[in-house]
User: Fold this.
Amino acid sequence: MSNVEPLFRTASAQYQARQFDLAAMTLSSVLMLVPQHAGARLMQSAIDLRFDRYRSARKHALAVAEHHPHDAQIEYDLFQKLRNFNEHALMIASATRLLAMPSLDRVRQMQVVSNLSMIGAPDLAERVLHRMQSREPRHVATLLADGYLAINQGEFERAERALELAIAREPRLAMAHWLLARLRTQSTAMNHVERLRRVLADRTLTAPDRVQVGYALHKELHDLGDFTAAWQALSVASAIKRQGTPYDEPAMNVLFDAIEAVPIRAGRRGNDPAIATPIFIVGMHRSGTTLLERMLGQHPRVVDCGETYRFTAQLRLAADHYCKGVVDLRVVQASAGFDAEAIARGYLAACQWRQRDDSTHFTEKLPSNFQIIGLIKQALPEARILHMRRDPTDTCLSNLRELFSDACAYSYDQGELGRYYHRYERLMAHWHRCFPGEILDVRYEDLVTNPESEARRVLAYCGLPWRDDVVDITAHTGAVTTASAVQVRDPIHRRSVVDGASTNRTWRRCERRWKSTLNHLQIACRWFRSNHQGIKGLPTLAPQLGCGRRGDDRCGCDKCDRDSHR
Assistant:
């Protein structure tokens, strides 16, 4: 037993030197002597993940969780490791134990706050934050955590105070600038444009920080109506973001081709009334999925669970492979051998901690789950699929203007975005053919123009009785962690819609700055129609682009080409 710690230190040194095979051999000796050595198991889990041994990596992490570490640093490492496996209930248990231990450094505590909020545990996140505030209330990490959590909770005045204090202490705190710009519509009397420009003028600013501040500047200039300067700020920031964000468009096309080629197998419909029915809300990002979930979350029988990768976690387990995003080619290729019932059991068990005794349905609002509708219906044939649709140009331009974290790598280049959009359209047409009548399309424009009528249609499809309060989303006080965290706090409005059609033509106000985006969308639309004749549900983008441009100020659509919009 006395040899264990020297052996573990040797394994740690080998791991740091990237001698992973040697480290694994040393760790096996440690675990032979002390099978429940938490540090050794977590290190072995990291090595297994590195070599894509997903099941083994998960097994080691769960073994540590079962025996409860007594060291704060190891507990934090476990908390972070459990995030890799979407073990949210165990993450909550781990964070609760952390609160009873000597506090970690501020940055790690801030990470705990952020992760707890993301997985739907805001009350516990507030407890961790209060601990930070009781010890170092003015530290930048504490203030930033406070601002982030307050935004998710809809407490915008509190968020603004915290973020301004953080910037006062660290003027180049990029995350704070970005969050602050999103809090409200900026005005001539109150904005941060000059401050943001001063920060960007600092040549020592890192590329990631330059991206966040650049997107903040774009947003504020856009609010002020300076669309040319806003476009310039966005162009610079998105180009930097794209340089640091890997996106393999040919690989994406191969993946979508493979998804469409998978034979559809009918799942066995469950009939246990004690199990809540999942409602998957899918579509493009920025299409209104958060609004729809917000409405459903007002229903007393529905638990809104937000964006999770819980279903993908079961696919990873079945394939013994960690995929980035909701699916990758290896998972698709392995899917023919999946045990659909095991996937369903694992998924429903992973969601159980969020259920209430009186709930009969729960939402899973990860837009990119549209890629795996076939696997969802195979494992959970009783699941409801709500497909949120929005005007194509509005959807794409909103994607282009949004700074995502690790998602939507296609959204930082206009051509890649336009082509991705139409692969999405093509895949949704495929799913409608495979599951006729089982996917409900919900138009954003209809939802905000006639919310009661659309809500009745949605609830009927989900098998839920009507409730008048579902259209009052302001009464919903739950946390929101998506890019729409600010917008969905407002009542349902139709400012961008008239008579069921979009009026949100940002590209008109930006002179010709959006022309490249629109051209790419139009080219993609023409290619799609010429190569996929006969597919129902084709996009109808061309008529929307030819809608009022005058003279030489043209958008590049068919109508512009024919008559210059005379």
The first helix runs from residue 4 to 16.
